Amino acid sequence: MTSPAPTFYFPAPRTQTYCSVCGTALTRRVPPEDNRMRDVCDQCGAIHYQNPRNVVGVVPIYGDRVLLCRRAIEPRYGKWTLPAGFMELGETTAQGAMRETQEEAGAQIELGKLYTIIDVPQAEQVHFFYLAKVTSSALYPGPESLEAAFFRLEDIPWNELSFRTVSSTLRHYVEDAQSGVFPIHHYDLPEPDSQ
Fold this sequence. Notes:
Largest sheet: 8 strands, mixed
Strand content: 25-35%
CATH topology of the largest domain: Nucleoside Triphosphate Pyrophosphohydrolase
Shape: elongated
CATH architecture of the largest domain: Alpha-Beta Complex
Mean pLDDT: 91
CATH superfamily of the largest domain: Nucleoside Triphosphate Pyrophosphohydrolase
Structural class: alpha+beta
Order of helices and strands: EEEEEEEHEEEHE
Distance between the termini: 23 Å
Number of domains: 2
Number of helices: 2
Oligomer: single chain
């Protein structure tokens, strides 16, 4: 099956302007005994590390259909996506995936195994998608979704998907559903070809 991959959103590199410890303007430099550029406070010595953000979500299946949400927020307003979002402090990836599913689709699910782990270094993110069984057809989309709907695998709106990690995960699911074997897929998402 071939399907065009949507473009991916690449945020600007994160830097911090002021020290969260003492409020002094930060300097961008390589600290002693380090090997990377960091935001450093020359006043109090604090080093402010910027680490990848975790995106967590699910591939929610109801019978022979997959649940998708139409985004009500940027980036990719109006595009279809799997229920997913940024992990919050104090929660596991599984807890975050279940929370995002409830917030975006209002769907009741039974969480399954981890399915895809996709490293997206150019966006400073790692995406984790779990398999999930939807236990009721009732959906109550939240404010981040224009709507939520079930799609047969042959009717997935490939040209209207929000992110490459979503389309990649769905491609794996469609292929794996044919064999009935759902291994964990872990890989780096390459940068898109420049056009």
